[in-house]
Amino acid sequence: MSDSLAVSRKVLSVLIKLNLLMGLFILALLIASLLAEGPVMAGLGMRPSPGGPTVILGMRAIMVIGILGVPLAHVVLTRLKAIVETVSIGDPFVAINAARLQTIAWAVLVLELMNFAVGTVAQNISSKAHPVDIRWNFTVTPWLVVLLLFVLARVFDQGARMRADLEGTV
């Protein structure tokens, strides 16, 4: 196996664990915000004032979106790791990899929609009294990545079919 594939496999393994850890952290933060709202929100920079409850609900909504993103990121990372495995054994153009890429594309699309939702929530709850600065901005790059993933899934599917046809004629 090439060094880059070995590194990719290790990096993906670490990212899978970090993703799950981040999900647990966000879940703990959400639970803590429900059990000890005052101290948690103060720790997040919230000061008591009019409009605060709306901001707190928005922050919790962002936490929920973050928690919901964890399984989607897990899907992306585990499917990508499985593709790396097939590449390492020298057999990447198989139908299962086309399906994996398509699943990754759908997951990334939903993650990007969730990212947009986070930006929308943050923009709607932010005020001078309660600035919510998550440094969100719209960029076209992730949407192009989604398109690229759908195209690559189709390329892998065609490659697998052509390979099967070729094997059937030999």
Structure, explained:
With 170 residues, this protein is mainly α. It has one domain. It has five helices and no strands. Helix 1 packs antiparallel against helix 3. The mean pLDDT is 90.
Number of helices: 5
Overall pLDDT metric: 90
Structural class: mainly alpha
Helix content class: over 70%
Strand content is under 5%
Nearest-angstrom radius of gyration?
A: 21 Å
Overall shape: it is elongated
Q: In sequence order, what are the helices and strands, one letter per element?
A: HHHHH
Number of domains: 1
Poorly predicted sequence stretches spanning 5 or more consecutive residues: none
DSSP E strands, number: 0
Reported for the largest beta sheet, the result is:
none
Straight-line distance between termini: 28 Å
What is the topology?
Blueprint: H1 3-35, H2 37-43, H3 52-88, H4 95-125, H5 141-169
Helix pairs in contact: 1-2, 1-3, 3-4, 4-5
Key structural traits:
single chain; 170 residues; mainly alpha; 5 helices
Give a concise summary:
The chain is mostly helical and 170 residues long.
